[in-house]
């Protein structure tokens, strides 16, 4: 069973939205957090190790954590229209990543490799 969490266009905080008692973490494959007034990358996302899709566009996030590389199954990552200044090298370690949208950010260089 695969689960997609849709929280787009809702004001949320950095606390977990995935209650272990109600939603098993290993079943969550997609998370949509578009326009949720986020200022930090939600730490709880890194715990969802089977994620394949993340849409966290249209927020005010400035930093993608290095731990993004722990999401080994991630194939779709939309972080467009945020305030990101640089991309972590660890993002490019994701072997399955096929779609990356970083448009609308403040990025001026992309790591080599």
Structural account:
This protein is an all-beta fold and 113 residues long. It is built from no helices and five strands. The model has no long low-confidence stretch (mean pLDDT 89). It has strands at residues 3-6, 28-32, 53-55, 76-78, 99-101. The relative contact order is 0.17. It has a five-stranded parallel sheet with strand order 1-2-3-4-5, with no helix packed on it. The protein is 0% helix and 16% strand.
What's the pLDDT, averaged over the residues? Answer: 89
The biggest sheet, with number of strands, parallel, antiparallel or mixed sense and barrel status, is:
5 strands, parallel
Query: What would you call the shape?
Result: globular
Count of DSSP strands: 5
Tell me the strand order in the biggest sheet.
1-2-3-4-5
β-strand amount = 15-25%
Distance between the termini: 36 Å
Q: What is the tally of helical segments? A: 0
State Rg.
13 Å
Q: From the structure provided, what is the oligomeric state, counting identical versus distinct chains?
A: single chain
């Amino acid at each position: 069973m695969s689960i997609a969490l849709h929280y787009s266009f809702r004001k949320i905080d950095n606390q977990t939205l995935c209650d272990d008692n109600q939603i098993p973490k290993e079943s969550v494959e997609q998370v949509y957090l578009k326009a949720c007034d986020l200022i930090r990358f939600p730490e709880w996302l890194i715990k969802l190790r089977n994620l394949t899709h993340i849409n966290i566009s249209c927020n005010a996030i400035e930093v993608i954590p290095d731990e993004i590389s722990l999401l080994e199954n991630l194939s779709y990552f939309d972080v467009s229209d945020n305030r990101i200044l640089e991309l972590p090298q660890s993002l490019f370690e994701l072997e399955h990543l096929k779609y990356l949208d970083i448009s609308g950010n403040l990025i001026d260089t992309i790591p080599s490799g």
